Amino acid sequence: MSVDAARAEEGFTSATASRVMRAACRAGGLDDEGAELIRLGENALFRLASVPVVVRVARGKEWLPKAQREVTVSRWLTGEGFPATRAVEDLEQPLLIEGHPVTFWHLIVEGDRKATYGELGGILRDLHAMTVPAGLDLPAYEPFDKSVLRLERAQIPADDKAFLRKRERELRDKFAELRFESPKGPVHGDAHVQNLMVNEQGQVILIDFEFFAFDHPEWDLMVTAVEHHSLGWQTGEQYADFVRAYGRDLYDWHGYDTLRGLQEFGMTTWLMQNVQEDEGTAAEYRRRMDGLRNDDAPRDWRPW
Questions:
Q1: How far is CA 244 from the centre of its chain?
Q2: Quick one: average pLDDT of 42-62?
Q3: Which of 17, 68, 147, 277 fits a 20 to 30 Å CA distance from 153?
């Protein structure tokens, strides 16, 4: 077996991502000594010790267009004065290392508090009001592109994979019947409160643009609406702050149940990617699968 074939078979683990990160730093002229893995999710994120930079390693070459989009969107938003995470300017990126797109971002030094749901509602309201400039080619939001790639590579039991493929087909049918009344505009595509950071100066900054799109704002509102109405992850006061800041509660919309199904499916397939990392992740994946198999059961899912 060739080296490349062996690496393809090993999957995307923290060890794989670390190796890619080190090679990318060498290619970019950065020192990786003391780099720390800070998150393994859709991507692996590393904080460098030598300079205030975060290195983002994607799962495979299929993610290259998303990595390119992230950098482009970041540069557009920061150029407009929007509070967005900044790609490192003097580096040609993304790099493609062993088939993994790698991008480099200025470290956001966090202050002493987390972003609030009211701030999330406000920043989404401001984002959705922006005008996308000519020449910035953004795709439509695609609710299934992530799940297709995830299911292809998933290291899960065969009956789980069969169930998830069936659920995907059912959701595609419901999605085909969905009708929006709102105008299209820029949407974040993964608009949960963890994608806001508060820096030392107290400024709230939007991060993570790989699913940025030109589409209906409901795609951004569904995340917090489902987290509250289905999962109970926010208090009534927190959710009321979000609705008040944005000006709309998606729960009142006729398409909420379809978006709820899409969001819960996406949350489960996202976690599914890392079941091999530790038993805690595997246990939460099983909890979410149990929930998907019974639509009417209470959701005791945990934030991850």
A1: 24
A2: 95
A3: 68
